[in-house]
Amino acid sequence: MNRQIHMVDVGTQYRNMKSEIDQAIIDVVESGQFINGPKVKEFQVDLEKFLDVKHVIPCANGTDALQIALMALGLKPGDEVIVPAFTYVATAEVIALLQLTPVMVDVDPNTFNLTAEIFEKAITPKTKAVVPVHLFGQCSDMEPIMDVAKKHNVYVVEDNAQAIGADYTFADGRTQKSGTIGDIGTTSFYPSKNLGAYGDAGAIFTNNDELAAKLRMIANHGQGQRYHHEMIGCNSRLDSIQAAILGVKLKYLKNYSAARQAAAAFYDQAFAEEEWMQTPTRQHNSTHVFHQYTLIIKDGHRDALKAHLSAAGIPFGVFYPLPLYDQEAFKHFVPDDLDLPVTEMLCKSVISLPIHTEMDEEILNHISGVVKGMFKTA
Question: Is the N or C terminus of the chain more exposed, i.e. has fewer CB atoms within 10 Å?
């Protein structure tokens, strides 16, 4: 195959909407309103409508979103925050930065997400919050998680950086967008995300008016009124150019999700008879928007598949090769008897294949053929 294959093809995606994106950027430059300009407010309102949430607070990036969310809860040094050990470092990094204690827990071996049972077993008198991570594109099972949180008076902060646009269905048939179910939701608009900016960007969501007011103040130096600072905050603003770009791309997010789902369905069918791998499991009450298409490779074949894909010029990702508890920065938080076998297994077994909005049948056939060919020659 002569075409270059990308994990995420942001270049082709841009070329397919070039005139809209270019005009949005030009409009901001010509307006001269680069910080908290009208495009930021416009994107905020549009995202509130899309998510059906009362408040969206735009900010500078997804890590800031998590930090600001935890700051708004008024937690004290030493308070415990439960977090999956199988996630990106930012989820736990902000907990440690605020002098809180990250309590690392295991995940479901099929969905890779936190469960209510795992969450409840980790609760202690010091537990004040939990951060369910909607990993790779689908929701954690939020209804029972919320029930446990309410029972134990624990805040819920959703890390929705990988699942924006996913729908969660409650037992009564009600649906809500991922990130809008807990006390606060956060997301990242990093360029490779399903809704990606052309630089760093993020946002925070909540239906709680009081929390929304605090979140806005914290993101803007702790001020509600200019030069009147009611609390210690930070400087985390969404750039107007990024807001303009995101405003264009938000109109296509449903189409983006559908394209990723179609690519995932193609892979599923292609790999249906391959017993040496496990294809992604769908949470029964959540749609999956496939930020990543992640396989579990059985019997120690992952390194062989990595080498095979590299030789064929096909990119891949290993998210994540090291659990949080093995990261040097977090070792002083880890109890000696910590045993998280699912996380351990996943870190040694997972691999993510290219998946994005611009994939066609030729690319999908080529990638799936190469993957299946590795097993035949192993």
Answer: C
